[in-house]
Amino acid sequence: MGSTGEPDRKRRHLSSISPIAGAAAKKHLLSPRADDKKLDVAVLQYQNQKVFQQLEAQKVEYFILEDKCHKLKEKQDIYDDIIVVANKSWDQLVSDLESRSICTRESTSAQHDLQGTGMLGDQSSFPMQDDFISRLLETGATNSCSLDDSTDSVEDEKSRTSETTKNILQNIISSINWMWHVSKDVTSSLRAAFSVHDQETHLRKSVIDLGMEVRSLILSVNDLHLKHRMLASKMQDHSDMLAKFKAEQKWLAGELASSVSELEESRCKLAILKSQKDGSKGAPILFPTLGNKHVIVDAVRDKQKEIQAMESSLKELKDQVSSQMVQINDLHERKIEILKKLGNLQNFLLSIKSVHSSSAFQKLKDQLDKSKAEMNQCQLSLAKLQAEKDNFLWHEKAVTLKDDLADVLEKVSDFSKLRIAELEQDLHKLVHERIQMEAKLEVTLREPGRKEIIAEFKELVTSLPKEMGVMQNDLAKFKESASEFHCLRAEVQSLSHILQWEVSKLQSLSDKFTAQLCQIKRLYSVVGDLTESEQELKLILEMYRRESTDSREVMESRDKEYKAWAHVQNLKSSLDEHNLESRVKSAIEAEALSQQKLAAAEAEIADLRQTLESTVREISKLSEKLKSKHEEGEAYLSEIESIGQAYEDMQTQNQHLLQQITERDDYNIKLVIEGVKARQQHDVVLSEIHSMDKKLQEANTLLNLYDLKAARCDEQLKFWSDQVAELVEDGWQCSTGFSSVQIRLSDVQRETEDLRHNLNDMQTQAEKSRFEITELQIELEMERFTKKRIEEGLETMTMKATSVRTHTDGLAILEKLRQEIREYKGILKCRICNNRQKEVVIAKCYHLFCSQCVQRTIESRHRKCPTCSASFGPNDVKSIYI
């Protein structure tokens, strides 16, 4: 093209429509695609292997967690049945306790009303009762062992059960407290009445036995409550474990879904790559004229090997998929078997007969029987205590009356003797004090100069507040200087924070600058690679020129093709160089900007450092000033403290002196007053002696009155004996009520047996329905499995359809390229003969023809251009290389 000297317009046209350049460009584009395909296939295979390994590990974990979950479910079902039975037995026990507590309360209420104690109504009189009820309600012994505390029904049940337990415990504790009160009264009366040791020991033993029985009852109730609490805590732990296992199952299911989606994506990618391989097999190599035949054959063999490797990997993947499908089928069958076993286990566990035959139920039943036996024993002991109480009441009251009469007489005589001795001692003390006071009066009247000392102390007290005010002003000044120092410290800290922020900015700018330098180095390396590739291409061209042994026409055609291809490569390299230059320019500009920012930041840092240094200097100066002021302040404080101590010492001395003066004055006055009082008291003592004689006479009259009271007490004893008979009748009525309650209990037991029969019938129906549900679940699982199979077949069909579509799209593109090649070849052919390529150009009109047609026109007489009929000579004809 350069030998003919054509204009730039023609050159552009020829370079834009040359097919050899297009073929070379297509080869250049096709070669990296094959490498990318190899890499993609290898990466996909590696990812598939990893995904399969993760799937297997997750399956193992899933099976382990399923086994744990099934075990926990079985345990939970057992505990649920045990809790249901325990709740029923607890309800029965509560009802029995309520009925019996009501009976005991009715029996004790009559005696309470007669005595007027009112123990049940007043809760403040029994702190033990409130503590016991609050402990039971806090620990939750009356709950129905339900986990859903948020619902209204559970709250209603809680309130009801708490009310019933409160009533029962109030009744029981009131009866126990009444018995304790009675026993205390009995013991106190017997201790006062009888001096015989045998009766006292007998009463003490009975009281101790009663206390031990009551304590054993409380301990048994506490043990039941603790057992109930332990069961509730175990149930809570099992529910927490179940929630954890459910969460882990959900997480594993999510991971399985994600791994399955990754597998599907990898399968899709493999199918696409396979379709691309199929398309690349049918696509022909357009221009193989540039290389040697051996090189082409080697390339074809490499591609065939790659395709074979891909096919083998695809076969392996298919085998793995088939093995996984077999595993999934096995797992599905196992799941169906496990579901059947679960249904059987649920039916077995939910049957009442199995619950009754369980060891936990039998243990609970034994415990209930023991508690009932203990309750019966307590009732018998209560009856015995009531009988003993009735026997001891009459003896107690008779003895108390006699003891009261004797105690009254002894107390009156003892009181009169003690009073006489005290009065005699008071007289002796008064005489001795009078003598001491007269001596002190004489000493105080002799001491001079008391008023002068008092005046000096008053002057000192007035001068001290002024000095204290001056010291307080100095302290306020020192505090102001300390606050200024703290403000300066805060300013220094803020400046240090600003400096750190600027330093971080500088570091970020330096990081950006290093990144840009790395990009520039990479660009330079790319430029070097391009130059090396250009040199290699030139060497290849020279080798081809030296090794060629063809005819002259073939050589010319090859030279033309090589020149065109070299021109295209030059254009590409120029484009790349232009792009590189633009990138380098942008990088240089960015570097310049970053350097400017760095310079500005360094200048700011230098300014900030200067300001910091100045602030540090000021801080050091201020700190020195502060230290000096602190030292002055400490000196002032020490002076103030010394002055304050001296002031306090002076005040204490003043107070002591004033106290001494006032004490002496008061003492003198008291001596005079006490002298008068001593005379008056002497007269009063004489009058009291006369009054004591009168009181002795009155005590004699009181003895007569107490005799009358003793007669009245005998009458009250008769009245109490009548009441005891009435109480015996009330006890007989309570026994009749107890028999009626037992009859009701037998009726209730019959009703419960009928209900159990009904429950057995309902459970058989429930078992049948559960069997039907399990069968339906198995059918559902089978349908889901078949649905999954159909979906997988649809996915495979869609993959095949996509591969066929990609193959058809590749054929259409090939046909279009062939049509373009034909058009380009038609443009390059001569217009006169339409067989040979254009090889010659006429310099006058710049029209292209083949050399043979132009020679014919030169040999003829009319040497004119066939297209524009312009005349030309043989020198105007010049050859070209296309």
Automatic annotation (TrEMBL):
Main location class: nucleus
Domain RING-type, first and last residues per copy: 830-869
Pathway: Protein modification; protein ubiquitination
GO biological process: chromatin organization; protein ubiquitination
Keyword Metal-binding set for record: yes
Keyword RNA-binding: no
Record Pfam families: zf-C3HC4
Catalytic activity reported: S-ubiquitinyl-[E2 ubiquitin-conjugating enzyme]-L-cysteine + [acceptor protein]-L-lysine = [E2 ubiquitin-conjugating enzyme]-L-cysteine + N(6)-ubiquitinyl-[acceptor protein]-L-lysine
Any one GO MF annotation of this record: zinc ion binding
Coiled-coil boundaries: 300-334, 361-388, 591-632, 745-779
SUPFAM superfamilies cross-referenced by the UniProt entry: RING/U-box (SSF57850)
Enzyme Commission number, as recorded: 2.3.2.27
Keyword terms: Chromatin regulator, Coiled coil, Metal-binding, Nucleus, Transferase, Ubl conjugation pathway, Zinc, Zinc-finger
InterPro entries in the record: E3_ubiquit_lig_Bre1 (IPR013956), Znf_C3HC4_RING-type (IPR018957), Znf_RING (IPR001841), Znf_RING/FYVE/PHD (IPR013083), Znf_RING_CS (IPR017907)
Gene Ontology cellular component terms for the protein in this record: HULC complex; nucleus
Subcellular location: Nucleus
Family: Belongs to the BRE1 family.
Name under which the protein is recorded: E3 ubiquitin protein ligase
Lineage of producing organism: Eukaryota, Viridiplantae, Streptophyta, Embryophyta, Tracheophyta
